[in-house]
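Lab notebook, bench 4. Still working through the backlog of constructs that have no structural model yet. Next entry is a single chain of 494 residues. Request: give me the structure tokens for it.
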Amino acid sequence: MTASFMDLVDVTIVNIAVPSIQHGLGASFSAIQWVTGGYALAFAIGLITGGRLGDIYGRKRIFLIGIGGFTLASALCGLAGDPTVLVATRILQGGTAALMVPQVLSIIHATFPAEERGKVFGLFGAMVGLGAVSGPMLGALLTEWNIAGLEWRPIFLINLPVGIAGLLLGRRYISESRAERVLRLDLVGMLLVAVGLLMVLYPLTQGRESGWPLWGFVSMGLSLPVLALFVRYEQIKTRRDGSPLVELSLFRVRSFAAGVGVQLTFGLVCGIFFLVWTLYMQIGLGWSPLRAGTTGIPFSLAVSVAAGLSVQVLVPRFGRKVLQAGAVVMAVGVLLYLWEANRYGAAIHPWQMALPLVVMGAGMGLIVAPLTDAVLSEVPREHAGSASGLISTTQQLGNALGLGLVSVAFFGVVDDAPHDQAVATVFTHAFTHAMWWLVGCLAVVFLLMLALPARNRRLEQAPGEPADGQDADGQDATGQDATGQDEVAVELVG
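Model written out:
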């Protein structure tokens, strides 16, 4: 729980401190995109491999390596003296998080008997929610206080005592465990997908500052054959030892393929919104980190309340329609925000943002909690673990891609603005332009949701009743754990 709390806080705490980091290091906007996007990309690429390393070499061992590396990377982030070092250490931080985070739910599942897991997952969900909500506020306070003149650095250095405590307590109290059926590592597949994605994201992020050179478009074009080679290699790997990084047969399930599209597009929405929102409030409107952080409280509360209602009350009764309603409600919130930003301009107040943020948060809450289970509902039980890992990876990749697209959706407008125009006006126009991208993405999300099952039978079963194909201990017919979807669902609620 300590590790998951640290990871979630670290993701959310950075956004609110982005303007302070840019000012303190003299970083370019593309470097700022890499500070957030580099973490998400490294985390996404290493997520499935990190889980398998725990299955093979022991979850406790890999967890301790991960939390130790994460703590060290946090210290290096806090001590970074220039943007390049900060980006490199953030990528290292994302890679170590990919070792740490996948072990958390696996350790809980291996440690506690079936009758106690419900309480533990409840505590875990509360911890995740606390981390997601407290991150922006903690980031705002630490940045605002400027402790010992360190400005933004305490947002990373705060991980040191938490990480050291987690490392020491983990060594003493966590029991070692391994998977009964172990898949092999697919390092070649991991390398191919990393190269293919970097060939897209690097020119997308850096291209604006370089004047969109030809090499950027060539790189993005060549990423397609690299990713095609990755798919071909995965097919060969499946036939050779049955341990591909991505189980391609899953995409034959229509609802899963569409669901991955939903996760990717929804991750893109989140990647664009949270970065441009911070830049709009702090650089455009000139608000302090604390004022910007408190402005987001209605959004966080609305997500939490709507997520609980969605899973417990609405989805069991109305099924897929709840998720589609969530996309519509969130789009309405975005349109409300657009209207208010255009109407009030630089004179807008936090209380005037509350209504669109509550509507957006309610829409997001209706989607994020039940989405993973809806995507997995038609996936064969023997592939539940692989499918849930792929869903989490896809969402993180969408987030990284969204952060890269900020160059086009937001900074493109900033670059084209007249030099004599007020900063508040320029950033307001850029923000509203980016918000239209969100509307388009949410329309795609709504359409893709049509391929999801109208009803999820697992959510309609009586509490405590084993799902089809599982015994009372939560294992599938092959004896493998089928709780991966719980991990992703709980993290997405956060």
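Notes after review: The two ends are 13 Å apart (CA to CA). The chain has a mean pLDDT of 85. Flag for follow-up if needed.
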